[in-house]
Amino acid sequence: MTTCPACGDHLEEPRPSECPSCGARLEGATEAFAPIGAEDEQAVEARAAETFAGPVLMVRKGPEVGERLFIDRPRLTVGRDPECDIFLNDITVSRSHAVLEMVGSEVSIRDVGSLNGTYVNGVRVDKASLADGDIVQVGKFQMVFMNRGGS
Length: 151
Prior knowledge:
Elements: E1 2-3, E2 10-11, H1 38-50, E3 54-61, E4 68-70, E5 75-79, E6 86-87, E7 98-103, E8 106-111, E9 118-120, E10 123-125, E11 127-130, E12 135-138, E13 141-148
Parallel strand pairs: 5-6
Antiparallel strand pairs: 1-2, 3-4, 3-13, 5-7, 7-8, 8-11, 9-10, 9-12, 12-13
C-alpha cells in the first residue's frame, strides 16, 4: 500500500491520479484510454478523403498518425534528411529514401537505395505506380495513398 506524499494518508490500489483525502495530484499516475482500433483508422481516412482533392499520402501507422502529405509537385524527395520535401523523422527511414513522381494524374514512388526498402501493399519495390487505396511503407511510416480526382 502506498501513501500520499502531501498528507500521508494510505492510498488503495490501483493508484488514483488524485489523493481522495487532500486532492493532491499524484506523480506517476496514469489515466486509462482506449487504443485506436482499425475502425478508427478507417474513420480518419474517410474524413480526410472528404477534405481534399488530388494525390496525398496519409500516415496511418507509425509516428505522426493522421498527418497528410500532399503530393503537389512533379517530384518530391522523401527521407530523414530535413532537406527532403517530405521529412520523415525516424531512424528506420534513410536520409534519402525515395522519390515521389507525378506525371499528369499518375503518381509513382521510386526507392533511391534505401537500407530498409520501400513497400507498396506489403511488397518491396524499386519503383511502383500508385493507385487509390495503396498502402505505402517507408520505415515505420505506413501511409495510405489517396487520389481523389486523379487516377
